[in-house]
Amino acid sequence: MAQKLCVCLTGSTIQAQLSTAREYQTLAHLYETRLDFLFSTEASSFLLVSDLVLFVNQLLQLGRPVILTARHRKDGGVWPGDKEAWRMSILVSLAKEFSTNGKVYIDLDWGVPELDALAKELVNASLGVLRSIHSFDSSWTPKDLEERGNGLFEAVEGEARRFIPKIALACEGIAQTRAIFRFGQEKRARGFRSFLVLGMGEYGLATRVLTQWIGSEWTYSTPLQGGPAAAPGQLDPRTLEEVYGYSNLKGTETLFGILGNPLSHSKSPQFHNDRFRSVGFPGVYLPFRTDDLAAGRQLMDDLGVKGLSVTIPHKEGVISWLVDRDDGVAAVGACNTLVRTDRGWKGYNSDIPGFLAPLAHQKGLLRALVLGAGGAARAIVFGLGKMGIEVTVTNRTPQRAQELNEELQPYLPTTLLNLDWTQAPSTTGWDLIVQTTSVGMDGKSDPFDLYEWTGKEVAYDLIYTPEQTPFLLRAQRAGCITINGWPMFEGQGQVQSRLFRRLTPGFLPDITCV
Ligand code: ATR
Fold first, then answer.
1. Which of 481, 503, 485, 482 is nearest to 493 (CA)?
2. What is the pLDDT of residues 37-53, one digit of tens each?
3. Has residue 165 been placed in a domain?
4. Could you report the per-residue pLDDT of 85-122, keeping only the tens digit for each?
5. Antiparallel, parallel or unpaired: β 128-135 and 104-109
6. Residue from 424, 368, 367, 373 nearest 398 by CA
7. Is 456 a catalytic residue?
């Protein structure tokens, strides 16, 4: 069964909402009109119930069910606080108007006496009724969710089993993401067929994409162009389809993801899902923003996630999960790829082959200078050393460069050298200079601005935003071959993708794995 996508209409006029609904008709399985947005402007004083009835009928003509929602400010909506009586009267009027229409739903906040009374009146109506809780207080615990959520589900069961309970809670940590998944899965196991359980904010993203895994009836999504997001963390419908293939997910796909914090700008979900689709691999890859690694691990186990990318700040922390590791992880002490095996997690460092990939066709690389001695530099020094290249490390804090060399030296066939940071710009004879510090991300600074490029060096900067740092620009002007961090990102991602795909029995990766 395909997953259902509800397009939220948050325009401030009927015309704006209708136009968004038409634009997204092919992606929408249903619409939610947010009446509170219509009533948030001065012009709304002229809106009559008859205008709204006409509007809902126009929406229904687009051939999709319609949810009517008028959310109060305290529940994350924009309905003016001083016009609560008006909100009640509109909801009551619309509920009565559409009570025999099986294509219309109405969202009634649970625990508001007038709306509880209205719900009772609608027990035998054909109209769908959502009983909802929205909470923006993110200080809740899994126990709070159980108590509150059970209260809602039991009350709704008592009102009418065909009513749809909805609970949307703001999440501020992955332990809460996990609690939401567990809550939904437990309700499904108890026989609830129709409900909505979701986490708001970036931590809740997976609960919005994996609706079949959690048991939710549909996901809510606001078009970026169509008005403000109806709730925090909602994705644009096109993003849901283009990045995650949302509507085509069946709930049987193998799960993968990335652990890190923050992840909102990560390009990995698009990259991996594109690759899975391009070879017809039945997998889906999600960002799992992770503040707490132990809770993250539990969620990965609950969901049966089979492979993970790992990024800042967890590349060292996940090493304690490993039952097995490749040489790169052992030497560098950082792991950016996890693959689930029968015995537990195996760790790989795909940054190393990823970094080397764009150098594969460069001839005559005998002497390399590495700027920086942080986590990224460790992988680079190890990779270059393994290739038999003579590597010199220079770092603003000399002690870090020395420590790096001492730790990696036992794993490498060549001698690692150190160079003073202030003297490095006046040296010559490098075939390759690799920039691993964060300097240059601002598009203005160059940590090696005193160096005179000869035009013979390969200049490699791990930064890819901006595409061309001042470091690369000066090197290019001098006639050097330049490489930014994007091929490394792609290279490490390709290695990960092959590792992930070869987990599926019978599915052969497109090229032999590392
Ligand atoms: P990463 O894992 O991305 O490498 P990191 O471990 O924090 O991040 O390392 C950052 C590197 O950038 C270090 O080599 C750091 O130098 P110090 O060890 O002296 O801190 C370097 N770096 C950061 N800001 C810098 C600056 N303004 N000038 C020179 N080097 C800088």
1. 485
2. 999 887 777 889 999 99
3. no
4. 999 999 999 999 999 999 999 999 999 999 999 999 99
5. parallel
6. 373
7. no
